[in-house]
Every structure is written in C-alpha cells, then in structure tokens.
Task: inverse folding
C-alpha cells in the first residue's frame, strides 16, 4: 500500500531556526520520513504577509533549506522545495479565497492577534487570506495528514472545511486532510523566562541553531531555575528545571524519568553543564553541514530544483482538475 502523504511547511526565519522549532516540529518531520510520503516546504510566500527585504528573504530561504537538509531531511526520500518555485500554490489559493467567507476569515485568532498589534495601513490583505494559501499548500498534494501544533489547529480546520466545501459544490476533488498531533514533539520554554514559549521574538533565552555553540552552552549555564536543589520534573512549580529536562530528553532520547534518576543527588550546575555539552555536540557538526550546503550553491539549487519539479508534478495535476471543475 502507498504510504500516507504528509505535508508541512515552515517560514524562512531570519538567521536560523531555534531549539523550539526543532523539538516542537522539525524533529518530527525527520521521523515522519520513515513512515510517510513527505512533502516539506519552505513557505516564502507566507513570509511576505509581513514586509521583508528581498535580499534577506532570498538568503533566509536558502538558509532554511540548508538547515533542513543538515538536520536530516533526505531529499531522495522526501520532496523538499520552496513554495514560490511552484506557482500552483498561488493559483489554487485564489479559488480557495473565493470559497472563504469574509466572516470566516475574520474569526481566525492568528489574524486577530497579529493585526491587532499593527495599524490598519500596515496589515496586509495577505495576512488576512493567509489561511486560504495554507489550505492550497495542503490540498495540492492530496495530503492525508498534517502535523500541527496548537497554534495552527484553527487554520487546519479551515483547510478541511474548504476541501469539503469545494468537493460538495464542484464534485469530489480534494482529499480532506487530518490533523496529526505528533507524539514526537515538545513545547519548549524560554531559558530566561521558563513560563513563556521559546520564540525569536524574545531574544535572551533562545537557543539559535546557527549561533556559536559556546554561546549556547553559556545560555544553558545561566538558565533561570529555582531556589531548591532537586532535579525533578514539575512544570507547575519548577518550570525552569522541567524545561531543561524536556530539552535534554528531546536531544538525547533518554526519558525524563531516566534523567531524574541519573541526576539524583547532583546539582543544577551538573545538569546545565551536561546539557550544554549535549547541545554543543549536536550544533557543531550541524553547523558544519549547513556551511557545506551554503558553500555549494549549485548543489543546493539542484536539490531545490528537483524538489520543485517533483512537487509540481503532483500540484499541476490537482490544479488542472480543480480548475476544470470550477469552469476555467
Ligand atoms: P510560531 O509563530 O508559532 O513561533 P514559528 O514559525 O516560530 O511559529 O515556528 C515554526 C514551528 O515551530 C511551529 O510548528 C511551531 O509550533 C514550532 N515552535 C516554535 N517555537 C516553539 C517552542 N518554543 N516549542 C515548541 N514548538 C515551537
Ligand atoms: Na515565531
């Protein structure tokens, strides 16, 4: 039997991915390659919903692709590509926008959050229609499952609604995708403020994958913990130590319970020193692999061109069928 198809996308963020992206999403992308037919996309179209400098966007997109490859996305097994290389995404998006109610799009909490932080002249229509483009991303590939975090659940629900709406109005065309709440993910908190999610918008306690690993070790050494001494997983009362245990577990595959036992009687300093070393051992060869991809632009271009060709072969068939049904 054919493997179920999975689709996931990530925006090309400036500089580098952070530890939360890895343990919360990308590590799962890598393991899904074993069981699924995976389509992974650097979603540069989505990233211009907020204005971006062209040269930075171009560099960040290549940088993101190099990091995905260096983390273990295998371009022979999975289809890794850049969204803007496959025009069908924008072409299907228009049709889906026309099937989306204005009120329906207005209820998207991410739009409400992001738009409330800016004045109306700076909120683009693209930010508003973003979920229709995301639906196009998913539906073009006959996607069975989409790994989603809590933050994207509402958007995925809209993708399902749009697939069903199209199918009932024009005839069965799209696979209705299922949300997949991944096993292999964790929510990672800021090292300096372990009650808020690690995010690049809070620069102090974020482990950036392309930063000097020595800096990473230092950030771990100065992570906020508490005034007790015991190394115990208790996110309510010991958010800092619990976060370190979750990160440690995610990076090594050792369970949190196993780590608690191993560190019985040890101090926070030991835990931090060892976790710092784990991250240094991970980041050093990772950064070398990223540099190899970035130092060989022709090879990276070739990989992304092949990925786009494979993606387009699927996407163009779906688009042709959808356009036929619509009357184009
Ligand atoms: P977000 O706007 O949610 O921070 P990003 O583009 O930064 O999204 O992250 C991309 C992916 O990484 C998403 O799947 C998101 O859920 C995940 N992610 C980001 N930060 C964290 C975190 N601190 N813990 C777990 N997952 C995270
Ligand atoms: Na973010």
Result:
């Amino acid at each position: 039997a054919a493997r179920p198809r999975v689709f996931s996308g990530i925006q090309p963020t400036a500089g580098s991915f952070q530890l939360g992206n890895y343990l919360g999403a990308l590590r799962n992308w890598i393991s899904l390659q074993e069981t699924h037919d995976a389509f992974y996309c650097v979603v540069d179209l989505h990233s211009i919903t907020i204005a971006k400098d062209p040269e930075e966007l171009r560099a960040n997109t290549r940088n993101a692709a190099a990091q995905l490859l260096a983390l273990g996305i295998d371009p022979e097994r999975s289809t890794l590509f850049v969204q803007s290389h496959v025009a069908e995404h924008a072409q299907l998006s228009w049709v889906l926008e026309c099937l989306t109610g204005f009120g329906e799009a207005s209820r998207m909490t991410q739009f409400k959050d992001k738009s409330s932080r800016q004045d109306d002249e700076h909120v683009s229509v693209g930010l508003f229609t973003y979920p229709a483009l995301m639906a196009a991303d998913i539906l073009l590939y006959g996607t069975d499952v989409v790994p989603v975090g809590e933050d994207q659940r509402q958007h995925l629900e809209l993708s399902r609604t749009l697939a069903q709406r199209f199918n009932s109005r024009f005839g069965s065309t799209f696979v209705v995708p299922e949300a997949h709440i991944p096993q292999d993910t964790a929510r990672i908190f800021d090292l300096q403020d372990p009650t808020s999610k690690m995010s690049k918008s809070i620069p102090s306690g974020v482990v950036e994958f392309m930063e000097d690993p020595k800096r990473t070790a230092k950030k771990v050494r100065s992570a906020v913990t508490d005034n007790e001494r015991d190394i115990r997983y208790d996110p309510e009362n010991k958010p800092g130590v619990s976060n370190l245990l979750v990160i440690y577990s995610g990076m090594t595959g050792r369970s949190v319970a196993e780590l608690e036992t191993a560190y019985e009687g040890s101090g926070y300093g030991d835990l931090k020193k060892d976790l710092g070393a784990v991250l240094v051992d991970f980041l050093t060869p990772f950064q070398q692999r990223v540099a190899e991809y970035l130092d060989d632009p022709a090879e990276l271009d070739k990989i992304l061109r092949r990925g786009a060709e494979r993606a387009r072969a699927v996407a163009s068939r779906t688009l042709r069928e959808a356009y036929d049904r619509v009357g184009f």
